[in-house]
Specification:
Elements lengths: L14 H31 L2 H34 L5 H33 L3 H22 L5
The chain binds fe (ii) ion (2 copies).
The site of one fe (ii) ion has 4 residues, from helix 2.
Length: 149
């Protein structure tokens, strides 16, 4: 949801660009939610092979999610870059791009932690941790940057 800009930390994009970005955010959220729901169901059913299947799902998720995230950051930056008009916009763009870089780094660390937890046999815990942390990290990023596009 777009918020009112409070401190001129904004780069208003054309509606169609904003729509594309919102769609990508929605796709990332669904991708993560699917993993969470599938593994919650598998956990409820119980059994050895369900755990293994959940582990498999998590591994392929970790593999794909980093790609999806970097692709999204690239797209968002490309759309922003096309709309830079005044110096203030350029400063905002640079800050936003640096925030993406930092976020990508944090996500990589989280992925490693998650894979490690899962390898130790706590796949359900690993997925909960991943789900919660991604929510915190991306929620913060949205409040600071994406909500002002
Ligand atoms: Fe962003
Ligand atoms: Fe974004």
């Amino acid at each position: 949801m777009k918020q009112q800009n409070q401190d001129s930390n904004a780069l208003p994009l054309p509606q169609d660009h904003r729509f594309l970005i919102d769609e990508e955010h929605g796709r990332m959220e669904r991708f993560l939610r699917d993993l969470y729901d599938t593994c919650a169901e598998l956990e409820a059913e119980g059994g050895e092979h369900k755990v293994a299947s959940c582990q498999g799902r998590l591994n392929s998720f970790l593999y794909d999610f980093l790609d999806i995230i970097s692709e999204h950051f690239e797209n968002e930056e490309r759309l922003m870059e096309a709309c830079l008009a005044v110096q203030e916009d350029k400063d905002y763009f640079r800050r936003h791009r640096a925030a993406h870089e930092k976020l990508a780094h944090q996500v990589k660390i989280l992925m490693r932690e998650t894979a490690e937890l899962s390898k130790q046999g706590s796949t359900t815990l690993a997925i909960r941790h991943l789900y919660q942390q991604i929510g915190v990290m991306f929620g913060e990023h949205s409040r600071e940057y994406d909500n002002f596009l």
